[in-house]
Amino acid sequence: MSWCETDCPMRTRRTWRKGAPCAFSGQCESANCATITGTNCGSCAPPNLAGDSCATTSCSQGLFCIAGTQQCQPRGSAGAGCDADHPCGAGLSCVTAAAMPSGTCQTAGSSVETACDPKHQNAPGCDPSAGLYCDASTKTCHAVTYATAGGQCGSINQVSVACTNASTCFGAQGETPGTCVANALEGMACDTQAGPSCVPPATCVTGSPTATNGVCRLPDPTVCH
Known about the structure:
By secondary structure, the chain is mostly beta strands. 0% of the residues lie in helices and 28% in strands. The chain has strands spanning 21-22, 33-35, 42-44, 64-66, 71-73, 81-82, 92-95, 103-107, 132-134, 141-143, 145-147, 152-156, 159-163, 167-170, 178-182, 189-191, 203-205, 213-217.
């Protein structure tokens, strides 16, 4: 099925019905293009419900794929319950008392010197989108420092280091630092696990949900059939 460009009713212009191939959610009457993992193509589908599988396809807008369960879930708002399978939304921390299985979403620190808890047990952490991290020694929010491609990233001597200059951090885990790997341009090789990532809006097309290495490709509706 092709999509209508001109000389067609307004309600059907640039819309595809359920099951039709797509690359963008805006092409679908349901506003949900269920993209197949590892590709830039999918099919128009009804919006997901919480708990729907995302093992092989993307979640619809407003829901996120939880790695541990491979299920689509909404992110919690302030005051909502949270755990590893039910994360909090942007600007929030899941504050969970020691030995407790779940906690509540609380507003993360959004300015330097705000009190915080790096373990999120007695207080929220700091908002990384504001360029902040929680310093373990002072338990206050500090500004993140940055490294360019090739530099170390992650936690370095208890200081949070992020990547800049179109690069992405790979290999960081706990107190073990990683490396900033320069993002690849469209048409170049990529790897979702080891790097490099792709320069947006290109994504790493691996060809399957389980493969990690592929090629950076721009979403292109004309190749989705």
